[in-house]
Write a structure and sequence with these properties.
The protein is an alpha+beta fold. The chain is 27% helix and 31% strand. The strands form five sheets. Strands 1, 2, 10, 11, 12, 13, 22 and 23 form an eight-stranded mixed sheet that branches. Strands 5, 6, 15, 16, 17, 18, 19 and 20 form an eight-stranded mixed sheet that branches. Strand 1, helix 1 and strand 2 form a beta-alpha-beta unit. Helix 1 runs parallel beside helix 4. The longest helix has 26 residues. The radius of gyration is 20 Å and the shape is globular. The C terminus is likely disordered. The structure holds flavin-adenine dinucleotide. The site of flavin-adenine dinucleotide has 40 residues, from helix 1, strand 3, strand 15 and helix 6.
């Protein structure tokens, strides 16, 4: 089996992995990316916050995404205490900020194509099996396509958190166990416009959205003891046909304590997961992937920066996590969230990177 070598090895071809890979390739590094599944592959999370648009511009993928013709929406309907209100994302001189309703199979394939176009070597479908560690440093991975050695490895493997498992990194669990059940329905729901809708329910919430004409998505957060029937569906979709089997995902709030260390960075869901009703999972995955890529590029050029890079990166992720989890717990006080998270004020560490990337996240009305 051939042993390959590159400056950077990225595990996972979702938004975090492609953002990291493109950022490194743009800085002139050689990049290998290993993606375990053939595309198009399913992922939930079609509502994309408008803050991704400037990120897509930087990654050279904005034109392809705009041309794909995904539905756009200026904000989110919120139902609370029996009242509906419309929360706009915001606006500037060019008009209202618009989110996307992008089927993830298509969106992620566009990002992966952008990575390939920028010189990233893509191994797909190939899985990372075990990581290569030499003298305490991550130096690549054994994959189903052979051993790939790299100066830095970025784990963007999603909620399976591959590297945390490999290195037995402690995961800080910040909430009770939350499960999101979600499904897709086919048909017409004439009362709905292009904006998603969020509704508070006892012990959780429901999120519904029109993904494309004739296709709707719903997600129901189920907290422990909420007693939600297994065949629960949103009542407004009662006349629609199921388009796929109902699935479930563990969306308990969690963060890998040491999300950067010798030879590695962890990005996207592999690093941290918070409440998906913020609809910023993809935004966060791309931001953290780009920031990991930025530090990898600096560290490859100057090894002396590695310690500073991992500290700054970890601080950014922990700061973002406390902020997101803090905002979510204000909205759902009945959900049990670990008190130790809030002993320190949110957003204590305004690193330069945080501010720069926050500037690309114009909305933030709810979270
Ligand atoms: C029910 C639900 C609804 C959601 N709704 C939204 C929403 O509306 N808006 C939003 O922004 N976010 C939403 N999210 C969150 C969003 O789906 C995630 O935050 C986002 O997909 C994270 O991107 P990622 O790149 O970190 O991981 P992923 O998109 O999961 O990509 C990880 C990739 O790594 C690959 N991989 C895994 N292990 C290996 C391995 N060993 N070797 C090689 N490849 C591997 C996988 O095949 C996968 O392609 C939702 C989440 C859930 C569960």
């Amino acid at each position: 089996v051939a042993a390959l070598r590159s400056d950077v090895l990225v595990i996972g071809g979702g938004p975090a992995g492609t953002a990291a890979a493109i950022t490194c390739a743009q800085a002139g590094l050689s990049v290998s990316l290993v993606e375990g599944r053939a595309f198009p592959r399913h992922r939930p999370g079609e509502t994309l916050h408008p803050g991704i648009e400037p990120l897509l511009d930087r990654l050279g993928a904005a034109e392809a995404v705009r041309r794909a013709g995904f539905l756009r929406h200026p904000g989110v309907w919120v139902k609370q205490d029996g009242c509906d209100r419309f929360e706009r994302y915001g606006e500037d001189a060019n008009g209202p900020w618009l989110g996307f309703q992008a089927p993830r199979a298509e969106f992620d394939a566009l990002l992966l194509a952008a990575a390939r176009a920028q010189g990233v070597r893509i191994y797909q479908p190939h899985r990372a099996l075990s990581c290569v560690v030499e003298r305490g440093r991550v130096c690549g991975a054994e994959t189903t396509s052979g051993v790939i050695h790299a100066a830095f490895t970025v784990d963007a493997s999603g909620d399976g958190a591959w590297l945390a498992g490999q290195l037995a990194l402690p995961v800080n669990r910040a909430s009770s166990r939350f499960i999101a059940r979600y499904g897709y329905m086919r048909g017409e729901c004439p009362g709905r416009d292009s904006a998603p809708r969020f509704e508070y329910l006892p012990g959780g919430w429901v999120w519904t959205a029109r993904v494309r004409p004739g296709l709707y998505h719903w997600t129901r957060l189920v907290s422990p003891g909420a007693g939600v029937a297994r065949d629960w569906r949103p009542s407004e979709f009662a006349d629609l046909e199921p388009a796929a089997a109902v699935r479930g995902a563990d969306v308990s709030w969690r963060i890998v304590d040491r999300c950067a260390g010798p030879g590695y960075f962890v990005a996207g869901d592999a690093a941290a997961v918070t409440d998906p009703s913020s609809s910023k999972g993809v935004l966060h995955a791309m931001m953290s992937g780009m920031l990991a890529g930025h530090w990898v590029a600096r560290c490859v050029l100057s090894r002396s920066l590695e310690r500073e890079g991992s500290e700054q990166y970890s601080r950014f992720l922990h700061s973002w996590f406390r902020h997101s989890a803090g905002r979510a717990s204000e909205f759902f006080p009945e959900l049990r969230v670990a008190a130790h998270l809030f002993e320190r004020p949110h957003l204590l560490e305004h690193t330069q990177e945080y501010c720069a990337i926050q500037a690309c996240d114009p909305g933030g009305s709810r979270y």
